[in-house]
């Protein structure tokens, strides 16, 4: 991957059956053979990647995220951030379905992280890796631990340590043990 620190991709989802039923119209289209999209008839926007309504989960993952997972196991930090209005497809793109049925980014990352770490362990002496996962919802300034649903959101705080790593309070306590 070239030395670009932030890449932006756009994904246009297909109309949903209920939108077709209500005769909703498509207002944004891919410009064929480019990473540009046309809003209405004359407003052109350029991105690093653009995916149309027929793009598969794998296509999105392979172009935008897989290279980051490869850098991750080499020790680099990486963030994938989905942004868009409600109903635009963030959850679908990140987590939709399971690996067997059109898994999203989280499914594919989980699979690749472990297979790449397995490869690394096989080919280099003494490499050890620890994988920690946290899954948090931030909604209206309140945090919820999605892996421990009974946690009271008021007890959770995201903090930054002296190295600039962020984590929730419980994670920090764990690191200090
Ligand atoms: N690429 C896609 N192909 C097929 N269906 C899709 C696609 N993207 C989204 N959808 C469907 O569109 C609907 C809305 O998507 P989703 O729930 O992912 O939106 P969201 O951006 O996470 O919304 P919210 O911000 O409200 O949580 C869902 O029914 C989802 O299955």
What can be said about this structure in brief?
The chain has 177 residues and is of the alpha+beta class.
Can you walk me through this structure?
By secondary structure, the chain is of the alpha+beta class. It has helices spanning 17-21, 57-73, 90-95, 105-123, 169-176, and strands at 9-11, 28-30, 36-39, 43-46, 49-51, 136-139, 142-145, 158-160, 166-168. The strands form 4 sheets. The protein has a 3-stranded antiparallel beta sheet with strand order 2-3-4, with no helix packed on it. Strands 1-5 form a two-stranded parallel ribbon. Strands 6-7 form a two-stranded antiparallel ribbon. Strand 2 (28-30) and strand 3 (36-39) form a beta hairpin. It is globular. The structure holds adenosine-5'-triphosphate (ATP).
Topology:
Elements: E1 9-11, H1 17-21, E2 28-30, E3 36-39, E4 43-46, E5 49-51, H2 57-73, H3 90-95, H4 105-123, E6 136-139, E7 142-145, E8 158-160, E9 166-168, H5 169-176
Parallel strand pairs: 1-5
Antiparallel strand pairs: 2-3, 3-4, 6-7, 8-9
Helix pairs in contact: 2-4
The structure holds adenosine-5'-triphosphate.
Going by helix content, strand content and strand pairing, the class is alpha+beta
Ligands: adenosine-5'-triphosphate
Listing every helix as H and every strand as E from the N terminus to the C terminus, the arrangement reads: EHEEEEHHHEEEEH
Fraction in beta strands = 15-25%
């Amino acid at each position: 991957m070239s030395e670009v620190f932030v890449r932006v991709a756009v994904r246009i989802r297909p109309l949903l059956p209920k939108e077709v039923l209500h005769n909703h119209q498509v207002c944004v289209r891919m410009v064929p053979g480019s990473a540009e999209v046309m809003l209405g008839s004359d407003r052109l926007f350029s991105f690093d990647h653009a995916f149309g309504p027929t793009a598969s989960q794998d296509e999105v993952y392979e172009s935008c995220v897989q290279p980051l997972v490869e850098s991750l196991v080499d020790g680099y930090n990486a963030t994938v951030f989905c942004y868009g209005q409600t109903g635009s497809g963030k959850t679908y793109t990140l987590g939709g379905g399971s690996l067997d049925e059109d898994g999203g980014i989280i499914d594919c990352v989980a699979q690749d992280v472990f297979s790449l770490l397995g490869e690394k362990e096989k080919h280099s002496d003494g490499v050890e890796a620890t994988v920690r996962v946290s899954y948090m919802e931030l909604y209206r300034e309140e945090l919820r631990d999605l892996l421990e649903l009974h946690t009271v959101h008021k007890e959770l705080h995201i903090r930054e340590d002296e190295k600039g790593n962020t984590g929730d309070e419980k994670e920090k306590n764990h690191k200090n043990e």
